[in-house]
Amino acid sequence: GNERVLATRSVTDRFLEYGASWSPDGQTIAISAYSTEGGAHHATVLGIPSAGGAVKPLTQRSWRVVGRAAWFKDGSRLAFVATEQSKENAQIWQLSYPGGEVRRISNDLSTYDLPSLSLTADNKALVTAQDRLTSVISVTLSNDLAHPRQITSQSDTYDGYYGVTWTPDGRIVYVSRASGNCDIWLMNGDASSPRQLTNSPDFDYFPTVSPDGRNIVFVSNRDGKYNLWRMDIDGGRQTQLTHGDLDFYPVFSPDGRWVVYEAVSNRPNIWRVPFEGGSPMRVSDRPAGFPAVSPDGKLIACWTYQPPAEKSQVAIIPFEGGPPVQLLDFNPQSYLRWSLDGRFLIYVGARQGGANLWRIPLDGSAQQQLTNFPSAQIWYFDFKGDGKQLVYSRGARSSDAVMISEER
């Protein structure tokens, strides 16, 4: 009984979903929160008086994301998992109270689970989940998918996890954290001569190459928000293309004049923007994401759902916008690709433990399984422009419960 609101934040400056923690004396509730103040995305730990009153940050330090905080029993400290602005892996941190001084407890290449940290009763140890992700890149002929050739091997650099695609001349553009951060790289089709194209302290990922092979469009948060950027194929002339809140999954139109992408404000929608720059235009009226442009440039396939039922489907919509011309009753749960002849959509589907490539005909006939992996995940894939070769990144996630003692 006696339910009451203690604090309220907006959707864009929101409390994070990892949960709140009572202080030992019951007077303060610690909770992580997200803010876009000044156009930058940052998160920190807030203190809410349990009796009501002003909400105050418990530290002046901010991170990209902060998990659920756990109080030490004397109320002098809190421990939590957080990810720094320019880093990929979440680490364990400690915050003094009420002073607000911050110290990092862990310092390794693992990533720790944001909501799962807790302390033993005597506060001499903490337990959390340590996550590991692997990703390597392979290539194969489209008519011989059963015999792929793995071309990268350093799985902890996330090669291809955030994107891998062909250039028209047979080179591969991919995302790797070999430099310690997520950047765009370029290599030959046999993985020789890898070259780093971006060197931002922030995140650069989801690259797409123009049909003439001269340019790359990618996603970056280097200006504080996730927007589309463009650059020359050699990494030169990096220029911001969009200025929304959350812009993702860019793809070129076949003529190279447009970039189609998913933009998120209060819900995802499909937009397109001129490659040379200009005002973006919304294409979809319904919630939609993961766009793919047909080979003739006339249609866009995308994931969609229609409120209030929120049943996930794939919609085929006109490139110029308007209601769907076709709806397919399946949920791809990731991005789509068209076949070269425009008769099929290709996607990653999970069946009986393994993720594989499937293609679904637009004429309503039965789906067909293209690969036959018994386990692991396909993170990203792309067919070469002539349809003769496939490149994809594949790997797995693992998680272990770990205990860290105060004497560590």
Q: Which tags fit this structure?
A:
408 residues; mainly beta; five-stranded antiparallel beta sheet; four-stranded antiparallel beta sheet; 37 strands; 0% helix; 47% strand
Structural overview:
With 408 residues, the chain is mainly β. It is 0% helix and 47% strand. It contains no helices and 37 strands. It has strands at residues 15-22, 28-35, 42-49, 56-57, 65-66, 70-71, 77-83, 91-96, 102-104, 111-112, 118-119, 125-133, 136-141, 149-150, 164-166, 172-176, 183-187, 195-196, 204-209, 215-220, 227-232, 239-240, 246-252, 258-264, 268-274, 281-282, 288-293, 299-306, 311-318, 326-328, 337-338, 344-351, 354-361, 368-369, 377-383, 389-395, 397-405.
Question: In which range does the helix fraction lie?
Answer: under 10%
Q: Biggest sheet, in brief?
A: 5 strands, antiparallel
The separation of the N and C termini measures 44 Å
**Derived structural class:** mainly beta
Share of residues in strands: over 45%
Give the number of helices: 0
- Coarse shape: globular
Radius of gyration: 23 Å
Mean pLDDT: 89
The count of DSSP E runs of length 2 or more, i.e. the number of strands, is 37
* Uncertain stretches of 5 or more adjacent residues: none
List the helices and strands and how they pair.
Elements: E1 15-22, E2 28-35, E3 42-49, E4 56-57, E5 65-66, E6 70-71, E7 77-83, E8 91-96, E9 102-104, E10 111-112, E11 118-119, E12 125-133, E13 136-141, E14 149-150, E15 164-166, E16 172-176, E17 183-187, E18 195-196, E19 204-209, E20 215-220, E21 227-232, E22 239-240, E23 246-252, E24 258-264, E25 268-274, E26 281-282, E27 288-293, E28 299-306, E29 311-318, E30 326-328, E31 337-338, E32 344-351, E33 354-361, E34 368-369, E35 377-383, E36 389-395, E37 397-405
Antiparallel strand pairs: 1-2, 2-3, 3-4, 5-7, 6-7, 7-8, 8-9, 10-12, 11-12, 12-37, 13-14, 13-36, 15-16, 16-17, 17-18, 19-20, 20-21, 21-22, 23-24, 24-25, 25-26, 27-28, 28-29, 29-30, 31-32, 32-33, 33-34, 35-36
